[in-house]
Batch of 4 targets.
Target 1
Amino acid sequence: MLHCQNQLVQAPKASRILIIRLGAVGDVVRTVPAASCLRKYYPDAHIAWLVEPKAKTILDSVVWLDKVVIFPRDSLKEAATKGNLLTAGRLLRTFFQDLRSSDFDLVLDFHSIFKSGLLGFLSGAARRVAYSPPYGKEFGHLFATDRIELSPTKSSRFERNRGMISFLGIGTTSVDPVFSIESGIRDALHARLREDIPGFNQERLVCINPGASSGAAYKRYTVDGYGEVARGLSKAGYLPLLTWGPASGERDFVKAVYNAAKGAAYFSPATPSLASLAALLSLSRLYVGGDTGPMHLASLLGIPVIQLMGPTDPIENTPYEGTPWDRVRIDIACNPCRHGCAAAPCMSLISPEEILRKAIRLLA
């Protein structure tokens, strides 16, 4: 159980609050439940979230947010790559002018790295809260006026984010629902599945999400392993649906899994945004996939998950405890590791039979 050692006696007064969690998708998803506690305690406050472009679309489903502020990372990177320093300078000037003009009086830096700490400082907010090391990294806590002391020194990301709320002393009950699924998107996806899958029955639908972003390919289970899992689920009477997120390169991997499934699996309709992927996942009975953002999203939506875990830390990346879940993991000498490897033996050694056994048990 995570404990805050320096909880405030009284929560700070605030009328304009900035949440900072820049990325990645899974980390943003896991911050939403804790951050939503702010809305309950500060019902009339203006609450904004500073995020990078790739994770922005999931915040479109967070109805209690007043504003989403985009840090133009992709545009800055493109300008710098092309040597357009004037363009990069203009982008930064415009961004910081907009940030300062919002007159934030409280910053909650859930990211707590150097970049997020600097952005919080440059927002002009008089009070800035961040994690002390080891939860805070890269000296980002030096930009904060309040530094949270948590123990023990390792916990799940969900617990760590609740630690920010515990520090404020405002209660850790999230708003309900955490994410709002657009009924129009959900209904359209449901209709498409009825058209595409013979004998479609939503109670038999299992989402298999084989992909991961190109930068985290080491989190992927094997093509043949996923194919065998799909065939096993189909044989048990379920409808395996192959889904993928908006990250580049994922669909090609999913196509390979589709071929390995030998007719036992179906392609999902296109989900070009994280909000549409959330709507699709909400239709399923079970989610099977690696330790990625979509897995944590499914868990927060109340969809039971089977987490296929290899190189990532099993404590830090525990799924949401409010939803049934199980994990398949092979403990070898080199995992968990920081960056993974191309061979990824911790993933390739996972048994399809073990995945199926746990999946059928959770479905029951």
Target 2
Amino acid sequence: MPNGEALLVEATAQTWPLAKPFVISRGAKTKAHVIVVHVSDGPHTGCGEAVPYSRYGETIDDALAAVRAIEGPIKRSRLAGLLPPGAARNALDCALWDLDAKRTQKRVWQLAGLDKPQPVLTAYTVSLGEPAEMATTARSVPHFKLLKLKLGGAGDTARIAAVRAARPDARLIADANESWTPDMLEPHLDAAANASVELIEQPLPAGADDALAGISHAIPICADESVNTSAGLAALKQRYDAINIKLDKTGGFTEALVMARAARAHGFKIMMGSMVATSLAVAPAVLLAQGADWVDLDGPLLLARDREPCLLIENGWIAPPTPDLWG
């Protein structure tokens, strides 16, 4: 597996407007704020994109400063000792993988020992809103067959029922983004089961999810905010059935690859997810989404415009990235 040295060329911030507000239990956003990193060995340049996330105490300025503070040649195998898991390390790690692909004239999936990637079906996100509003959104995208509902706690049983009534044909998964309380678990999980929801993501706040260990549930419960890297997997076993792997949490493609393999070894189902970002950030995740139980990589679809070149996405099916985009 190539792992040559490179020099940082630049680290910049970019802003990408969304097509419409993206609303979850923690608030709304109208723009995607990302960092983009370029590294070079001279003849070749690799790039990576990441999303600093305030939920984890990250800012754009801090992420850029962390990347720019690294002096001298950068080697992927040393990144874990230079930067903690998070957006800064993700952008650098993915840029170095892209550089290795260009340097060796091989694809990243080959360098990582993965099978040749195939198109994957992504969920399309229905933002948090009133039940009728969410039903209208779900009805407006009949070509998306897997929908992810953003939930917010009180009123979620009505939201789930309204979307199911609007889209009896769709597969549904739901993300509570830490908004439920323990007393909501039984009625909300029953409502989800009655609506044939396939997965409930992060119902309780990370660090306050012990109640999950004592409930019976017909629907798999997925950890997102409760786990960032492979080191945290063992502690989840009594509470969660699945995990959401995001490169911005793991700190890049390298750790995400380790985490996916470790998750399978621990018996967890896998969702491959990402923050709202452009195709450059999502491209590495498409490789890791091969064989995932659920895929949630619709970030580029939520933008007013994507970067060029971009991922090809048709009716929710994402084709693997081309070499001119990444990897």
Target 3
Amino acid sequence: MTHPHGQRRPIAEDPRLYGEWAALDLGSNNFEMLVAAWDGAELRVLERRKEKVQLLRGFRDGRLDDAVVERGLAALSRFAQRLRGVPPERMLARGTHALRVAENRQWFLAPAGDILGVPVTVLSGDEEARLIELAVAWYRGGRMAADGGRQLVVDIGGGSTELVWSDAVTGNRETRRATSLAIGCVSLTDEFFAQPELVAATYPLARARVEAALAGLAAVHQACSVVGTSGSVESLLRVTEANGFGRGSISLAAIAEVETAFAEGHWLADLGLPGLAPERVDIFPAGVAILSALMRALRIDNVEFCEATLPHGIILDALQCGARLDADDAAVTALAARFGVDREQSSRVARTADALVASLPSEHGVDSGTRRLLQHAAALHEIGLAVSASGHQRHGAYIVQNARPGGFSELALQQLIVLVRGHRRGLPLQVTGKLASPALRAAVLALRLAVILERTRLDTHSPAQPSLRMASGQFTLVLPPGWLAAHPLSASELAVECAQWRTAGWPLTVL
């Protein structure tokens, strides 16, 4: 299947599209409702709700279990109360694997349509994969990886697993191949993990079952960045982080640690492992088996988690959006406007911060991505003033963390939060350690210095061509002659700043 997002008509600036939209993903494990508002630049989430229905529980002879159908309809009745104010033409209900394969699907679809007031459409596997990839492309801002722009999106569902390979094509993303495997965490749990206390014995069998289903895919896979979505991937990431197996992404080594916990009997049938949400305990081993088999079969070293979901893709597709390269810009601009951030001051700080990082040697790793992230942080660094001037860096970090503007990978979003939190007062622990990223450390330093240098809040008082140097583990800020004498407040704050960095082990001096 080929689907060039770059050829899709972008969202028009059409006020008729503005307002609330709702998407329902009637999946094999969860039913998920997403309500979001479109304002011409940002898809702002208003509410997300999940209910564990597990349509495939008790699935026999191609038929949904009666009790499961009733459970699913009851969940939709609760969703329907929230959705009464959403125009029917903006309410999009979609079914996935369980409803694709069930011979008695109409027993569910007909009353479900009556409850919601709109029909439920059952997606094909390829269409489900395309919509997930569309959501990831929007969420990550459409930026391509450094390895030629190739990307694989993995979505582990309850009844199927979607794989989408895509490439960068003239600045857009083109889907090269989409595959839907009829293996999911619920169906695999029913087959191998019906008795949780036997996980140590049945886990190798489950993984072998998945590996057999993946036969032939290794021939079409190429080295690329790999992004995982869904609760299974998120749960595995949380468990590996909680147990010290890894951080920020999922590695094969981290999965091996979890598999060792299964094999050595550390898995608790009722509690799972530290970091695992209670509602994910029963299907967690199956999700691990699927991702482990996939990574081994395709020789994938690392998987990054993305919070994009199928409902995001459903709404974006309805808006005829495609993958926007400026999704992060639009999201940051909308967030700053919502909280009344001073755009002129943000621009001054952004300009000065960029001049500082641009003057550093290339070995600090301050690439175009870091500079872009620094610009976003400058745009949002004063957002916490909407709460209080006292400790506004903490308020700002809280707002960004909970607003979760789209267009950012999970790693980039966490770095953005560090920048906003660390633009003043105490230095963030994430940038002062010996193992911290040099690029993030340089970005935090540049932002903090820019805030100090732009204290007058007038273009005419910005320092001309400020620069940063780095030699023998020491930073040097170079300013025009006489500038400090004319700006005593900035001079005083720079003295405090130098002392903080010196205490942290990264000396800073000012010329």
Target 4
Amino acid sequence: MGPPPLKQIGPVMYEVDKSFREDMRVPARVLADAALLEQIRRDKSLEQLVNVATLPGITRQAIGMPDMHEGYGFPVGGVAGTVLPDGVISPGGIGFDINCGVRLLACELRREELDDRLEQVVHELSRSVPTGYGRHGRLSLSHGELDRVLEEGVPYLVRELGLGLEEDLELIESRGSLSGAEAGCVSERAKQRGADQLGTLGGGNHFLEVQSVDEVFDLGAARSLGLAEGQVTLLIHTGSRGLGHQICTDYVRSMDQSLARHGLTLPDRQLACAPFSSPEGQRYFAAMCAAANFAWSNRQVLTHRAREVFGRVLGKEGARLRVVYDVAHNIAKLERYGGRELCIHRKGATRAFGPSSQEIPPAYRGVGQPVFIPGSMGTSSFVLVGTDASADISFSSTCHGAGRAMSRSAAKRQVRGEVLRRELETRGIVVRCPSNAELAEEAPVAYKDVERVVEVVHRAGVATKVARLRPLGVLKG
């Protein structure tokens, strides 16, 4: 069978009809413009999205975002909802870095007030935040303390360990704690990998980025989010580290072995799954919730470290780093649509609840849930807010970043890390990365055009642009 045929059904919406393959249960839809669609067709992400449309219990449509690219089983940038209780849950639909996500912090200082202290800020961040694969943090938890992080999340860190402010909790998705978490469903190997990784950045595309608000598109929404042109911000992008990776590995193996018992036949073994109500489905969801709590806690510890650094270098005003919001983009959540409870898989996709949602902080009701779309080193990032229309279009979901346009190995063949470092520094962007090879993997040329990606979701009506953020200094994993 040839490549999936796409029919344009809207200005930035394309569809593969479910008649394309006998095993498709719903259509597969992609949000994109012509240029992004051409990039999407270069890998197997569209074929993967069609495979997602075959999952038992899937409803309405499988959805691909404009930053979509090939992943493990599900494409990165894929969204799917399955009807509970017997629709499936698939670890590949969340990803190995469970609750990889982004948190935006806003500083009271303006860009010009950083002056010659920018390099010192980035340097001190690099000293306070361990980066790279397998690195350990300054916070070492006992077995009991780790279990409490897994089951309680950020509230435990704030209230018991003093790592943050009570007001932070209101501005984190799900207040940084999913109630379905069970530490007992997390393997000892996963706990060993995570025990000393809170407050670490990790490798790959994870980063801390000092930025300034470069342009405001929606003045009212920006004011509600506490953002103004010229303001200094800090964007944190990381997830659940080795703990989340091990949980995904454990449950992909477990579900693969149980497929026959549940009578499941899949077009790709990487889509390994189980009915949500099954023992395997319940245990995975409990472990995934625990990993999500760990990831939110990781970003909370990084916030605490950033406040310490900004306070040391910039004084009392710098230390007042306020959480704007924290949102996951690799997660499964239980949400209601059309009167039914669904398991919404978001893999490389961001929740984007609209202004009428009661699930977002009271301060943002009437505005919409904040959404943060990182670009790449040297390119802008964006702040958006979700819309009520997104519920019908995309299960209240939008894109999560620029999306890779080439593999890491291809980027390293094309880009020399030391050359890229010099180029960024000549543009006034301070860079700290332990490895030139890892720097090359994340070069701007390896990513799609974030401006184009954001414009598509804005035009589609799933999220609207609020502000553009310009990079000043980057700490890379």
